[in-house]
Amino acid sequence: MRRIAVLNQKGGVGKTTTTVNLAAALANEGKRTLVLDLDPQAHATIHLGLMPGRSGPSLYEVLTQGLPLADVRREVAPNLSICGGHIDLAAADFELAGTVGREMILRDALEAEGGDYDYILMDCPPALGVLTLNALCAAQEVVIPLQAHFLALHGLSKLLETVHLVSKRINRELKVSGVVLCLYDSGTRLGGEVIEDLDRYFDGRRGTPAPWVDARVYKTRIRRNIRLAECPSFGQSIFQYAPTSRGAEDYASLAAELQGLAPAAIWVGGEKAVKLRAEDASAA
Asked: What's the CA gap between 69 and 115, in Å, rounded?
């Protein structure tokens, strides 16, 4: 089982879109996948067709009242389940202030759950508080959605510093798997320059004792696509809403890379016309 925190402290970079649609792509591949919505905005929950507060308890009750994850989990599609978020999660920092081991609550809940999942994806809030800390303590790896903008690189260093501290003091398994570029426009020179800067940054740290020593910039770029912006309002993933769109193609390709396959999926009417080749993604 791979436990992945999808994280960026900056909002509007495609974090929730990536969590939901990457999870849906993995589920379509037959991988049992669970989404944990740790964002008080509960956008991942809404994206997958549930209404916070009307679909039963949320992760708020898990973190503050010790409710088992099994009582929160809802199956929303074949192989795809979610433990929903709620606005009450915004109070978690305050309510857990005096709780010993508050950063370990989610990790302990996952260990008690013992679900037979292939992937657990955690949608983190755009802040480095107790909710994000719980995700980092429970995760094995971090995937960072990033826009190809110059200012986005400045926030990346602070985020990597936080991951480093957590890996050194609390969760030695934690590592940064890579950066996925979202809202990408291949027609701009800036996008290419940002990619070069990212490659240079990670290449310059190979061999260092840091959790991002093996991190990479994924070859798949999540292109700007109006269908990706539309599908949350219908409570559907991109594969349900527009399976032949560029957005579906991109997230299928990203899911292939994440699994170590060559990103060679082509989506036609919701079915793959070309099977993923079992090759290392670096060969693509």
From this structure: 10
